Amino acid sequence: MTDAKEQVLKICEILYDKKALNIRALNVADKTIIAEWFVVCSGRSTTQVRTLCDELEDKAADMGLTLDSAGLRTYTGTHIPPGGEGVLQYGAPLGRRSR
């Protein structure tokens, strides 16, 4: 199993432990150059979505992941925009991704 796949499985496990819904790990390496994997899930409320994002941020460092240099996160502090979406981007900046 590749390191990336192991990290994706760990991310899914973290989300599962926090009761995320509809967890999907999508391997997109052969479809785009911007990412190897997308992990998508749902939460029951904006509070849960915030908790899922916070938990991933807390556990990411232990997994050797850092928030992308763009620092992409669609909410700040305790505010999540209408629709309850949270986006975290981890990995190498564009142009430095290797296969």
Question: What distinguishing features does this structure have?
Answer:
99 residues; alpha+beta; two-stranded antiparallel ribbon; 2 helices; 2 strands; disordered C terminus
Distance from first to last alpha carbon: 14 Å
Query: Uncertain spans, ≥5 residues at pLDDT below 50?
Result: 69-79, 92-99
The radius of gyration is 13 Å
Strand tally, please? 2
Largest sheet: 2 strands, antiparallel
Could you tell me the mean pLDDT? Answer: 74
Helicity, in percent? 25-40%
SSE order, one letter for each helix or strand: HEEH
Read across the widest sheet, the strand sequence of neighbours is: 1-2
**SS-derived structural category:** alpha+beta
Number of helices: 2
Approximately what portion of the residues adopt beta-strand conformation?
5-15%
Shape: globular
Describe this structure in words.
The chain has 99 residues and is α+β, with helices and mostly antiparallel strands. Helix content is 30%, strand content 13%. The protein has two helices and two strands, in the order αββα. The protein has a two-stranded antiparallel ribbon. The chain is globular and about 35 Å long. The chain starts with a helix and ends in a 39-residue tail after the last helix. Residues 69-79 and 92-99 have low confidence and may be disordered.
